[in-house]
Amino acid sequence: MTKLYQRKGAYIPRVAAVHDMCGYGKCSLGVAIPVLSAAGVDVCPVPTALFSAHTKYPVFHMHDTTEMLTAYLDAWREEQVDLDGVYSGFLGTAEQVAVIQRLYREYPGALRIVDPVMGDGGIKYPTYTDELCEAMAGLVNDADVLTPNLTEASILTGIPYQGQDVSVEFVQKNASALLEMGAETVVIKGVVHEGEQVIRNYLASAADGGEVEEIASELLPYMLHGTGDLFASALTAAIYTGRSTREAVEFAGELVRDAMRITREQPEFEMRGVSFEPTLGKVAALLA
């Protein structure tokens, strides 16, 4: 089983988390920072946008941070900040792809984990333009791990979206296309066959021949905002504790399921975002 990071003694790895920050509704940096921190990772946020609330709310305010990011990273360079990884998610503008690519150039030894947050259910998120989606494809070539759902895989590859009830052959077609675009490891999330209580994620690695491997977990009968961010953050956390990519995908799927069960007991649970906080002990246990 492929391990992308080997934990060394008491050393705490440092990872840049390139995501938006959301004031209400748990997602993005609000998930990435606590989950990675629980795994003993020093999280260095690079905020791509500031939101009053996540975009499922009918009213939200977005502040684009693109103009500040060059000076932000210039300051890091002057302070000789070092990084062991770059974990990116939601971007505010097409120009921010160049910000991530700058991090790749300046930290060539950093692990590159890309969650191409662009849409779900066959629909792009409201702030995502065609220009931004096209620019996002530029990150595929540099990704050590790429974690699209079926909608995002379609946007990146140009393969038409066919819903979530798809065959293994269709998943393989998408995974192979993404590997050919340059990704080293691909995790395609969220395959659901009608009438089944199972959600399937598929792992494919260029190093292992590119064949998809199914990793299934329990499907709960409701949808929540922020589960994709939690999945990618939990996967990243597991990788930085020295778990293999398969172990990391298994752990992420189980953590999302557990957090969703907790969320169901909260008021206005369908809007507030996934309640992951009580599961952080399970993330910390990865260090044991």
Helix content: 25-40%
Distance between the termini: 20 Å
H/I helix tally? 10
Query: Per DSSP, what share of the residues sits in E-state strands of 2 or more residues?
Result: 15-25%
Question: Would you summarize the structure shown here?
Answer:
Helices cover 36% and strands 21% of the residues.
Q: Care to describe what's here?
A:
This protein is an alpha/beta fold and 288 residues long. 36% of the residues lie in helices and 21% in strands. It is built from ten helices and eleven strands. Strands 3-2-1-4-5-8 form a six-stranded mixed β-sheet. Strands 9-10-11 form a three-stranded antiparallel β-sheet, sandwiched between helices. A two-stranded antiparallel ribbon has the order 6-7. Strand 4 (85-88), helix 3 (96-106) and strand 5 form a beta-alpha-beta unit. The radius of gyration is 18 Å and the shape is globular.
